[in-house]
Amino acid sequence: MLIAATGELVTERAACSSGRRRHDDRRCRCGFGGAWLTGSILIGAICGIVAGTLLSLIFAMMTLGLAVNQVATGLALTILGIGLSG
Length: 86
Known about the structure:
Elements: H1 2-11, H2 14-38, H3 41-65, H4 70-85
């Protein structure tokens, strides 16, 4: 979390920082869920990496490829993540 926060401090606008933390929260939840379900820390880490990569890929495709507003996209992905994680 500290490394992600440092990167956000340098590269992102303040309006998008809250969306990044929510992506990190989803990644942590997926990692914990994977580790808890399988009993393997390695599989939990892989689940967290995959979840973070997919969320970042969706965000990048929408904001860079489709030129959608970053704040609106972050909010939509946050709502999606809340719905998927229960």
